[in-house]
Structures are given as C-alpha cells and as structure tokens.
C-alpha cells in the first residue's frame, strides 16, 4: 500500500498500480481520451497530464506507476495551462458543430473545454476537412472530422472482439479512422465503439437525432435477450401528449457479469418495448374491455381449477415465477416452464449465450417442471392452458390441445382469434424483478417505466386471485421467497446494490 498526496489530500493507493486508475477510483476528475479501463493505456492523447513533485515536466497519469510518498497536482494554473494547450491541439481540426452533434451532453471534449479550455481560438488558417457521415456498417456512423484519434475503437476491435475491422490510415493531421478496403464493421459487439468513443465521431445510426440526451431518464435493468443477463441502462422519455418511449439500451458496468459491454442484439432489443405491443384485451377474437377481460380470466381460473395448466415463461422474474407456483398450489393446477428458445448460432465465447431467455435458472431452482415430456404428461386431462409472459404460440399448437386457451403477453400476435382470452401485460422494462443468470448471479432489474397502454402487472393480477396483499417484490420476498434454500440468506436489498453469485449444483 502507498500513501500519495493529490492536490494536498492524502489518499491510499496500491503500490505499482496505474496512477489514473487510483485518481479515478477516488473521484478525482482527470481528463482522458485514450485510456479506458477495459482497453488500458495508449498514451496518445496526453490529456491526463499531472504535475509530480520532483519531475521536471508534467507526466501522463495513465502511464505512471504509483509509488509511496508521491505528491501530485491535478489542478492549478501551471497544469491547467498544459491541459489547455493539449486541448487546443486536439481541437485544431475539430468542427464546431456541437449544436447538431449527437454526442452533445455526453461529450468528453465539450466537458474538458468547459473545465480547462475556455480559450479563444488562435486559428486563422482553414480547418483540415475530413469526411462526414461515413457508414461503417453495423449501425455505426463515423464523422471523421470529430475524431480525436484516441484509437479506443481500433483497440476494441483488436483486443476485445479480435475482429480487426478498424485502423488508423494516412499520416499526421490527415490521419483518420477507417475500415479496411472492401470491409465493414461487422461483429456482434460492434456498437460498443459508440460508447467507447469519447467524442461525437462514432454515433449510433439507430439512435442519432432521435432525442437530445439531456431529456433522457436512465433506469437500471437486466437485458432479457439471453441467459447472460447483462446490466443495462434504459434511457427513456415521455414527451408532451405522448406515451413514455424507450430510446436506447446502454451497457452498465458490472464487473462480474458483462464488464463494460453488451452485444448489439441485446442493445437493439429495446425496440420490443415500444413496437408491436399488444394494446387491447380480446375475448374469443373480439376486442374486449380491459377490466372485463381481467375479471373473465380470474373466473376462468377459478372455474377450471385443477383442470388448469399454467405454461410460464423463463422471461418472467423470480418473484412472478414464485407467485405463479403459489397460484398453482392454491388451485391445485399444474405448472410448467418448458421453452425452446435456444439458438446455438447465437452463443459465443464472450457474452452471448445460446439460451435466449433471462431466467430459466429460477424455474429450475424453484423445482418447476420444464421439459417437453413433462408438459405432454401434465397437459393430459387439462381443460384450460394459460400462457403467461410467453411469446410463442407454437408450443401449444404443437401439443394438439383442444381445450380453452388463455394468453397473457405484452407482444401483439397474428392469431388473437385462437385463444379464448388474451390479456396484455406490462413488458420487461415496466416490471421490476429478480433474475438469475446462467452462472448463478442473482440480480435485480429495478426499471419500472409507466406506460399509458392498458396492461396488467403479473404480480397485481396474481394478488387478485391469491388475495393476500402481496404485489411488490419486497412483499414477495418476505412472504416466503427469502426462505428458499438456493437464496442462501441473500436479501433483496443485497441484490439491489450488486449481483450476488449462488452455488448451482
Ligand atoms: S472514432 Fe472515436 S473512439 Fe475511434 S479513434 Fe476517433 S475519437 Fe477515438
Ligand atoms: S449478451 Fe445476452 S444479456 Fe447481454 S446484451 Fe446480449 S442478449 Fe442481452
Ligand atoms: S489518457 Fe493518458 S495519454 Fe491519453
């Protein structure tokens, strides 16, 4: 352990560790472009300069090892002048198009200029113009003139995806980022370069010009695209006279589960929260009053009782699955979590998993039957099958079932006339809940965006039937979920702050 003094304040740091990491870990604002915790140092931008007592010239913090007794200055007229000069160099050819740049509001260059720049331009020669709106492929747009050549994007494709699509071409101030001739940026994680890019050079074709970022409200959730369960930020906004819209998913740093990244499939899966939503209830193919359909579904469950099969989805949260099991016990019905949503071509050795559901582990750990054979056995002599949270109608069609069918889903589907009753439910970003990922990490998705469209939360619907006042996750846990052996003394408040791993036999 080393004791160093930064701007007159003592901090403890690991001897030999990289200075910038210790400064950032202690919330000390240190401008940087090329350093990124997932990519390491490159030393090309020189923005992270600090003064170190005993050294003649300022040093870059991303390439300085910590040693005991160091005295460092990150502020003050001298070091600010150095930073200002570097910034001036970075900005020589940078267009001043901030008002129309999609990065405005989350641009490091803008922020640093406001922190230590604030100089008047001394440039009286024309700027060196580079290409705008270059389509790199994979939903990524490049504005070459905004690039500060930090090479984060190049190092991402070199060191993380190892796909090597990007490089720096040409010399001096004519240098620019490009794909190699005849190739496009194309790998399942390509859109991470948009988050890595500290300026507005790489932007998302999908998101650009849809919203100014300062209007967006971020919520924290778990991606439901596969069993990895990556941590994400959900950015949404409600404009005047409109419904709340989810505009994008971004990775949220989670050391254990997904690090700094998510895959493009998961990133773009936010669209299902807005598009193709089931907006009405249906009874025998006819649009129905929402409240009436809820009542009718409740009556159907009470009428069929033990003749019911609850066919639940591994997309549901642990709390919902636990309560559905309770319902099955109460009415002596069968419950099954069989779901064929696997894609061997989807999984890889980085984040993506072939199991494209986020919570199959919860179904297994709650000892709910989930094989096709179980389903074929359980459906015998049943008169009512209720699909809950599922997106597939094929499963029941393939089962050759001719009794009554109910569907609770968030997604619109063609054959709404086939089930006897269809009820819209709140989608993933509207319901908080716990998910257990492929490696046994128990994680809480706290996002609960309120939408105008008519839909019911599964926990609220179950409370109508179970009639025990349990509607929130906290109450589900205290009603008995917390005593499940696999949770091993984990509490809801613990997983609200971090993912916790459980042993899975
Ligand atoms: S495009 Fe962005 S990430 Fe890539 S080198 Fe330029 S500034 Fe850095
Ligand atoms: S790897 Fe899976 S959980 Fe992670 S972002 Fe992609 S689809 Fe979502
Ligand atoms: S962050 Fe240190 S030189 Fe770029």
What does this structure look like?
- By secondary structure, the chain is α+β, with helices and mostly antiparallel strands.
- It has three domains: 2-90, Ubiquitin-like (UB roll); 99-204, Alpha-Beta Plaits (2-Layer Sandwich), CATH 3.30.70.20; 281-501, Rossmann fold (3-Layer(aba) Sandwich).
- It is 23% helix and 20% strand.
- The protein is built from 14 helices and 23 strands.
- It has helices spanning 19-25, 77-90, 108-117, 152-160, 192-196, 264-268, 290-304, 318-331, 360-365, 372-378, 394-398, 458-466, 473-478, 492-497; strands at 2-6, 9-13, 49-52, 59-60, 71-73, 134-137, 140-142, 166-169, 176-179, 202-204, 217-222, 231-238, 244-251, 281-283, 286-288, 308-312, 334-336, 384-388, 404-409, 421-424, 433-436, 441-445, 500-501.
- Strands 15-14-20-19-18-16-17 form a seven-stranded mixed beta sheet, with helices on both faces.
- A hairpin with an 8-residue loop joins β11 and β12 (231-238).
- The radius of gyration is 27 Å and the shape is elongated.
- It starts with a strand and ends with a strand.
- The model has no long low-confidence stretch (mean pLDDT 94).
- Bound molecules: iron/sulfur cluster (SF4) (2 copies) and FE2/S2 (inorganic) cluster.
- Residues 32-35, 43-48, 60, 62 line the site of FE2/S2 (inorganic) cluster.
């Amino acid at each position: 352990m080393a004791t160093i003094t930064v701007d007159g304040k003592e901090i403890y740091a690991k001897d030999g560790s990289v200075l910038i990491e210790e400064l950032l870990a202690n919330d000390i604002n240190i401008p940087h472009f090329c350093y990124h915790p997932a990519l390491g140092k490159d030393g090309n931008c020189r923005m992270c300069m600090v003064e170190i007592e005993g050294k003649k010239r300022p040093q870059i913090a991303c390439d300085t090892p910590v040693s005991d007794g160091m005295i460092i200055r990150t502020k003050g007229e001298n070091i600010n002048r150095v930073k200002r000069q570097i910034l001036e160099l970075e900005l020589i050819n940078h267009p001043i198009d901030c008002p129309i740049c999609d990065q405005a509001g989350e641009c490091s260059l803008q922020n640093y200029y406001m922190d230590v720049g604030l100089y008047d331009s001394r440039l009286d020669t024309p700027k060196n113009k580079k290409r705008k709106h270059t389509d790199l492929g994979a939903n990524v747009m490049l504005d070459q003139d905004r690039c500060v050549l930090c090479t984060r994007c190049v190092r991402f494709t070199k060191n993380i995806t190892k796909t090597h699509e990007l490089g720096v071409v040409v010399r001096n101030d004519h240098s620019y980022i490009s794909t190699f001739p005849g190739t496009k940026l194309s790998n399942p994680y390509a859109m991470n370069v948009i988050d890595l890019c500290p300026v507005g050079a790489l932007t998302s074709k999908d998101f650009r010009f849809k919203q100014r970022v300062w209007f967006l409200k971020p919520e924290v959730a778990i991606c439901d695209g596969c069993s990895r369960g990556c941590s994400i930020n959900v950015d949404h906004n409600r404009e005047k006279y409109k419904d709340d819209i989810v505009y994008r998913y971004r990775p949220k740093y989670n050391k254990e589960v997904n690090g700094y990244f998510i895959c493009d499939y998961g990133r773009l899966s936010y669209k299902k929260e807005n598009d193709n939503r089931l907006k009405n209830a249906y009874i025998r193919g006819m649009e129905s009053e929402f409240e009436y359909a809820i009542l009718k579904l409740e009556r159907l469950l009470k009428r069929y009782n033990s003749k019911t099969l609850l066919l639940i989805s591994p997309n549901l949260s642990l709390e919902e699955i636990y309560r559905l099991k309770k319902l099955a016990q109460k009415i002596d019905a069968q419950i099954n979590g069989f779901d064929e949503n696997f894609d061997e071509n989807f999984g890889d050795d980085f984040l993506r998993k072939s199991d494209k559901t986020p919570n199959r582990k919860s179904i297994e750990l709650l000892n709910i039957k989930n094989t096709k054979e179980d389903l074929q056995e359980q459906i015998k002599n049943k008169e009512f099958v209720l699909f809950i949270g599922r997106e597939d109608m094929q499963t029941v069609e393939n089962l050759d079932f001719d009794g009554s069918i109910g569907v609770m889903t968030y997604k619109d589907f063609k054959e709404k006339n086939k089930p006897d009753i269809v009820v819209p439910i709140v989608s993933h970003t509207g319901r908080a809940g716990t998910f257990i990922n492929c490696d046994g990490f128990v994680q809480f998705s706290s996002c609960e965006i309120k939408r105008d469209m008519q839909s019911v939360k599964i926990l609220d619907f179950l409370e109508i039937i179970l009639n025990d006042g349990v509607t929130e996750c906290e109450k589900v846990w205290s009603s008995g979920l917390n005593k499940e052996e696999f949770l091993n003394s984990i509490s809801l408040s613990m997983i609200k702050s971090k993912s916790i791993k459980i042993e899975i036999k």
